[in-house]
Design a protein that fits this description.
single chain; mainly alpha; 6 helices; 70% helix; 172 residues
Length: 172
């Protein structure tokens, strides 16, 4: 998406990412793209909870505690496809963000090599590369902090607790 050409950023964004020595808009574009992706995915990523909460409620509603429902194969298949679709979307989002980070890092390394005659500019590129590499928000967060990992574990933990509760009710 961003890697094909230089993104034109508004004056506020360019001024906010201003560096000394000054870098061109083309040189700062990769840096701005990465932080834009981190901010947007930080807002969007928690939405992965909704499909898994709904799926969990639908599965809980069909438990034998409430009624003697059957589990047709078609229904289980629909729930599996829905869960796989939601999980796949979250994984693809993270993978695309990581690919964009690699592209941005490669661009900044290339700009660093092109500007090797100016030591201050090289240091500025080193700072940008370090900031991007150390970024851990949004889609760039560690896998254990990703909302889709928690969303996948939520239904399993909830169903496990319900199964234990059902067994305890059968014992007493």
């Amino acid at each position: 998406m961003f890697a094909r050409e230089v993104t034109k950023w508004s004056r506020e964004v360019v001024e906010q990412s201003h560096r000394q020595p000054p870098l061109t808009e083309k040189e700062l574009s990769a840096y701005n793209e990465i932080f834009f992706i981190a901010q947007r995915t930080q807002v969007v990523a928690p939405l992965i909870w909704y499909p898994f909460v709904v799926l969990t409620l639908m599965i809980v509603a069909r438990l034998s505690v409430f009624d003697n429902w059957t589990w047709p194969v078609s229904l289980v298949l629909i729930w599996s496809v829905t869960a796989a679709w939601a999980l796949g979307s979250a994984i693809l989002l993270r993978r695309a963000a990581e690919q964009l980070r690699e592209t941005a890092l490669n661009d900044l390394r290339r700009f660093r090599l092109l500007g090797r005659e100016v030591a201050a500019k090289r240091e500025t590129f080193d700072e940008l590369i370090a900031e991007i590499r150390d970024l851990k928000t949004g889609a760039f967060a560690p896998l254990t902090d990703q909302p889709f990992m928690r969303a996948v574990l939520f239904p399993g933990a909830g169903l496990g607790l319900l199964a234990v509760g059902q067994r305890l009710l059968d014992v007493f």
